[in-house]
From TrEMBL:
All copies of domain Metallo-beta-lactamase, residue ranges: 81-249
Signal peptide: 1-18
Single GO MF annotation: hydrolase activity
Coiled-coil segments: none
Family: Belongs to the metallo-beta-lactamase superfamily. Class-B beta-lactamase family.
Alphabetized Pfam families for the sequence: Lactamase_B
One BP term from GO: antibiotic catabolic process
The protein's name: MBL fold metallo-hydrolase
């Protein structure tokens, strides 16, 4: 029920906007079109023109290494097709987001991860399940982990996030997660959603940004918080090596400033998943020049501030789901 409410209101949100639009100057909005992806997977499963007869698996998994796994959910089952990240340490395993599927499917998320890691590794280490933020397409798979005694599941609410990570003056400060030989830094990044976080993996040098930054149409609920969060990430990237920005969706096409509309279930010409750190710096430069909520169109993503009615609808979703 919660997921259906969220999807209905999301579709309403996507259809109404009254913000000024800025098509960022070409020399300030684009990077080299032939930029090589950081991951060795040229094509993700991207839906079908006939989803009723789609036979593709529920999860499309890519093992970047034995310790770093990326999973995308089937676009014919959920048009959101969110990405889920699994980071393995010597003592703990982090699962970042659990996706948008809450049906009792044979190939549930916990079983998929267990198959990829092996039963012994899956059951012998503590599994920490956290979320980039509290939108329902990022926690619908939580139920699959609740039966496992070795799982610590952090609910995607502001109260639980602040409590678990020890944030006493949100959104100031940083937190860390030690997986055992693999350190993660947790960065508060509200703006898209109040409890949003970004995670930096010191092993891969990746920033996992959730819906704060990804190749798609990015809704911004709180403009000033978003500006501050992007500035914080840009500063972090200047002080730490960042090899890639890894978000939660692909909505952009593989041509500049073009995206698939909300609800699309077939995306044959998608952009790459990863964004470069230069994209982050470019966005920050523009945001710091833009005090007023404004739609900003870049080649690799589009920033869309919510209007007053959209914020009310977003708060209704939040009331039902948190």
């Amino acid at each position: 029920m919660k997921a259906h409410i969220s999807i209905f209101l999301l579709l309403m949100i996507s259809g109404c906007s009254a913000q000024p639009v800025t098509n960022v100057d070409e020399n300030k909005r684009s990077l080299k079109a032939d930029r090589k992806s950081i991951i060795d997977k040229p094509i993700w499963l991207h839906g079908s023109p006939d989803c009723d007869n789609n036979k593709e698996p529920v999860h499309d998994a890519y093992m970047h290494s034995e310790k770093t796994i990326i999973i995308r959910q089937n676009k014919c089952i959920t048009f959101e097709a969110p990405f889920i990240y699994v980071l393995v340490g010597d003592q703990k395993i982090l699962v970042l987001d659990t996706g948008a599927i809450n049906d009792k499917l044979e190939s549930s998320l916990d079983k998929e991860i267990e198959m990829l890691l092996g039963k012994e590794q899956f059951s012998s280490r503590e599994i920490l399940v956290v979320h980039s933020h509290g939108h329902s397409d990022h926690y619908q798979g939580d139920y699959t982990f609740e039966k496992h005694s070795n799982v610590k599941l952090i609910k995607p609410s502001a109260v639980e996030v602040h409590k678990f990570f020890g944030f006493s003056d949100w959104p100031l400060g940083l937190a860390t997660i030690e997986l055992g030989g693999r350190l993660l830094t947790v960065i508060p990044t509200p703006g898209h959603q109040e409890e949003g976080i970004t995670i930096y993996d010191h092993e891969t040098k990746w920033l996992f940004t959730g819906d704060t930054l990804y190749p798609g149409l990015i809704y911004v609920k709180d403009w000033e918080s978003y500006r501050e969060s992007i500035d914080k990430l840009a500063t972090f990237a200047k002080n730490n090596e960042v090899k890639a920005i890894m978000g939660s969706h692909i909505e952009m096409k593989n041509r500049p400033a073009s995206y698939y509309p909300v609800g699309t279930t077939y995306q044959p010409n998608e952009a790459k998943l990863d964004l470069s750190v230069e994209s982050l710096q470019m966005l920050n430069d523009r945001l710091q020049e833009t005090d007023r909520p404004t739609e900003l169109i870049f080649d690799d993503f589009i920033i869309q501030p919510l209007g007053r009615i959209q914020k009310i609808l977003s708060n209704i979703v939040r009331w039902f789901t948190q």
